[in-house]
Design a protein that fits this description.
single chain, 22 helices, about 900 residues, five-stranded mixed β-sheet, disordered C terminus
Length: about 900
């Protein structure tokens, strides 16, 4: 049919020019049937360009974006009329047109390669009007093709249409393929599934990937209680695994799934089974961000539920700061729960809303609910006790001895039921202290003012907290009763439809026409994070797509990270031809169900869309929830780390932030590190002598059991006064330093770069470096990897080691985190079975068997001072039984440790 269309266009053009038999039918409505043989130009006064657009995938129904410029490359304004699904008429006025006058016509569409043609307008015979005709056959990008083709292959194997439900979990998005981000793969999956997969349904989940991750796809269908999966590895179209995800025994797990699915094996299986169980889509996304579903994931969400139930946000935190949040979290990284606070409550490190390093037992967290008007707060300390929860599990299920993957999935299913119906049974509120003063807040977090560090943050220092002599009022807490909404999915979708139609009318009143699939319109929304009366409102995104074609994979529908309890809004920002942005924001009132429009911004990320930021930079800004001068260097530092310290096979990043700024949200998000994984620690220190040291980077190599430790110093750029810093920064992101506004460029300086044995020295730094983490890092001996291996006897291979760093900090101490491994090891460190390394061969552009940083539990601190949990015993609050690690491990007796 495409070839016939081309022949028809050429024949019509020849007829117009040679015979003068030009006629036109001017349709003012969208849609309708038609082709070039029906064109009648006799009524047209101004020059006309007829543009016929077809797509490599004929079932793609996309309204193309069309730009017209003249021979001087000046933009030409035109009126666009859709004549059929492929044919568009462009009317415009242009002085001095003669036969052969050329115009440049550029066609673009999401998932397709831009195409430009020179189009000449000519008079046909004696007709005074000038007409040009051209056909564009758009070709898909390689990443879009992969998304379409892998979806088609999965559909053929799994038969989406006959399934009860369909799910896709993928590493595509932030992972790079052929040097680019892979959001086009996601676009291909969405279009190729023909409505079976969508953002609104919450069944497209993306792992928090790093650039060097392979681009994998796992499609799962549910038929009754049975899950069947098709897994495609690193861009291949032949499934590496086709089989069950519901009837998994230990042999299948160890011999097939782990070797084939690789590092994310437990992630795919645990998330798929949680999806089948009905875990809410926002928590499924949090699990994908973290990497899997486990006791820590669910325990952290239970703590979120208890915090909102007994200590609701109210007006707390409303002090006018962009970074202001109703709570601060003081955690101990490494047991999964911390990622729930960052994700669901927007307590991110870069906003200084989360502070935490290795200070206490690792399933404990403190929250400060702060009131700016009274300058006082409430300190709430919770924990989930793995031993207590597993005992309850045994009592309620009758299971007393169980081992392996099947038990882990059964346990997760039970946990999900508890989270939905009895979250109080999964977590404990052990201490509550009222009238927390600014001094106490400062000592724990580094500063009440999120932008200024006034003292070194103690973190969750239980000796300090219990030594304050405050009265524990945990038993006096009062539950808040919330109304649970009863909107159907179609009603939630209609909210998005109504908001889109309201926006169309609002912009029309300003003389702006909002077309479907227009890349110049960006919709920012809190949907995807907020809940309305306890209900997830993802389906509003499908409503917006239906009317406007706005999608995350197109970077035109952007969920802005915010706390679960905040307001649902839709911010419509349109890029005008004069390089300005017109914004309307529509708010949803959950009590009345009404939409209210205002001429304002709900977030300020529209300030960067004029300058075409890289996709992954934009995603990181969404995570930070705003743009600012503090966050702008983050992407530059991210690029520096990837360029200068790329990780290879069996390597993973970790990071200690000391001079915490908004930039930390950017590179922590893009480097795939987080508190819940134990790979990001936030200390907020004042001990930086030059004010430029921003943190300490670690690269752990599990193959050689060595750790590279790098101290990073950042020097900011100087821009000419009055410059638009976002435009200038985005130029720098793209490697363009030619701007006359850039007086001096940014730089990163390495002040320390050394290797240590195992993870012991790194663990000592992560425990605070005895009060001076930067000094402790700088005091490490300067060694190469070869030096370390030679000094321990020449072994090239890691394994279970003592965990003690070969060269530790100045005091010579250092508790050890051993090499990442499956199960437990001699140093007392437990790691989730998701760390099992894939040994199969990867495709081009990836490292085979590449390891990720997963959460670890801190080993007991031999020789360390202080016994904070002894003080817990004094106050009679809790007895801690540490089982180590997140969830259960897949070797040994689950309940026999």
């Amino acid at each position: 049919m495409r070839k016939q269309g081309v022949i028809l266009v050429i024949a019509t053009l020849m007829a117009l020019i040679l015979c003068g038999a030009v006629s036109a039918t001017d349709s003012s409505t969208s849609g309708g049937e038609g082709n070039l043989s029906d064109v009648n130009t006799s009524e047209v006064v101004d020059p006309i360009l007829w543009v016929n657009v077809s797509y490599e995938y004929a079932d793609d129904k996309i309204n193309p974006e069309i730009e017209v410029t003249d021979s001087n490359n000046d933009s030409v304004a035109f009126d666009k009329t859709k004549y059929s699904d492929t044919l568009y008429k462009l009317n415009f006025t242009y002085e001095g047109v003669v036969n052969g006058t050329l115009f440049n016509v550029k066609i673009s569409a999401p998932g397709y390669i831009n195409q430009t043609q020179k189009m000449a307008v000519n008079q046909a015979g004696t007709d005074p009007e000038f007409v040009g005709i051209a056909t564009f056959n758009l070709q898909a990008t390689e990443n879009y093709k992969l998304g379409r083709e892998v979806t088609a292959a999965a559909d053929k194997l799994l038969d989406f249409a006959s399934a009860d439900d369909v799910l896709c979990i993928t590493t595509a998005g932030l992972a790079y393929r052929n040097g680019t981000t892979t959001e086009d793969c996601l676009e291909g999956v969405l279009n190729g599934s023909h409505g079976e997969i969508s953002y609104g349904q919450g069944n497209l989940l993306t792992f928090q990937s790093i650039r060097t991750d392979p681009v994998d796809f796992c499609f799962i269908v549910r038929n009754g209680s049975e899950l069947t999966a098709a897994f495609f590895k690193n861009g291949t179209l032949t499934p590496a695994y086709l089989g069950t995800f519901s009837a998994i025994d230990q042999t299948l797990w160890e011999n097939t799934l782990v070797p084939v699915l690789g590092d994310n094996a437990f992630g795919y299986v645990s998330i798929a089974n949680a999806w089948k169980k009905g875990l809410s889509t926002d928590i499924l996304r949090q699990a994908a961000y973290h990497g899997h579903v486990c006791l820590g994931t669910i325990g952290g969400q239970a703590m979120v539920s208890l915090l909102l139930k007994y200590f609701p946000p109210g007006i707390y935190g409303d002090d006018g700061e962009l970074e202001a949040t109703s709570y601060r979290a003081i955690g101990v990284p490494g047991n999964s729960d911390d990622d729930a606070f960052g994700y669901s409550l927007d307590l991110t490190t870069g906003k200084r809303s989360y502070v935490g390093y290795f200070t206490a037992e690792d399933s404990v967290v403190g929250f400060i609910r702060w009131c700016a008007s009274t300058n006082l707060g409430t300190l709430i300390i919770m924990k989930f006790n793995e031993d207590t929860v597993t005992q309850l599990f045994k009592q309620e299920t009758g299971i007393t001895a169980y081992s392996g993957i099947a038990a882990e999935l059964l346990f997760n299913s039970w946990l999900i039921d508890k989270l939905e119906n009895d979250p109080d049974s999964l977590a404990e509120i052990i201490l509550v202290f009222e009238n927390i003063t600014p001094a106490i807040h400062n000592n724990l977090t580094g500063g009440v003012d999120s932008k200024n560090v006034v003292t070194d943050a103690l973190g969750l220092d239980m000796d300090y907290i219990l030594g304050l002599g405050l009265t524990n009022v945990a038993e006096q807490r009062v539950a808040t009763n919330y109304t649970t909404g009863n909107l159907t999915q179609e009603q939630i979708k209609q909210i998005g439809i109504d908001a889109a139609n309201m926006a169309i009318a609002l912009f029309a009143a300003d003389g702006i026409t909002l077309e479907i699939d227009n890349s110049k319109l960006t919709v920012f929304t809190s949907a995807g994070y907020v809940r309305v009366n306890g209900q997830v409102v993802d389906m509003t995104m499908d409503g917006l797509y239906q009317i406007l074609g706005s999608r995350l994979s197109r970077a035109t529908l952007l969920p802005v990270h915010t706390a679960r309890y905040n307001q649902l809004y839709f911010q419509f920002s349109f890029e005008n031809a004069n390089r300005t942005v017109t914004t309307k924001t529509i708010y949803y009132d959950p009590e009345s169900g009404n939409l209210t429009a205002k001429n304002e911004s709900a977030c300020n990320i529209e300030q960067v869309i004029l300058y075409d930021p890289p996709y992954d930079a934009l995603m990181a800004w969404l995570w930070h929830n705003h743009v600012c001068g503090g966050s702008a260097p983050g992407y530059y530092i991210t690029n520096y780390i990837y360029d200068n310290f790329p990780i290879g096979e069996n390597e993973s990043y970790s990071y200690i932030g000391t001079s915490i700024s908004c930039r930390d949200d950017i590179y922590s998000y893009l480097l795939g590190i987080s508190p819940g994984e134990g790979s990001y620690l936030s200390q907020r220190m004042t001990t930086d002598s030059n004010g430029k040291t921003i943190g300490i980077l670690s690269i752990y190599d599990s193959e050689t059991d060595t750790t590279r430790i790098i101290v990073l110093e950042y020097n900011g750029p100087i821009f000419k006064e009055g410059s638009n810093i976002y435009e200038e920064w985005i130029r720098i992101y793209k490697g363009d330093y030619s701007s006359p506004n850039l007086l001096s460029g940014p730089s990163v300086v390495i002040t320390k770069d050394t290797y240590t044995n195992g993870r012991g020295a790194w663990n000592n730094l992560g425990s605070g470096g005895d009060g001076d983490v930067i000094g402790a890092a700088m005091s490490l001996a300067n060694l190469s990897r070869a030096d370390v291996i030679r000094m321990r006897g020449g072994s090239q291979t890691g394994g279970s080691t003592s965990g003690t760093g070969l060269i530790s900090s100045s005091n010579g101490s250092g508790t050890g985190l051993s090499g990442l491994s499956n199960g437990s090891n001699a140093s007392g460190v437990n790691v989730s079975a998701a760390t099992v390394t894939n040994s199969t061969t990867s495709s081009v552009g990836t490292q085979p068997g590449e390891a990720k940083a997963y959460e670890v539990t801190q080993a007991s601190a031999e020789g360390s001072e202080g016994t904070p949990w002894g003080l817990y015993a004094i106050v009679g609050v809790i007895a801690v039984l540490v089982l180590g690690g997140v969830g259960f491990f897949f070797k040994g007796n689950l309940f026999g440790r």
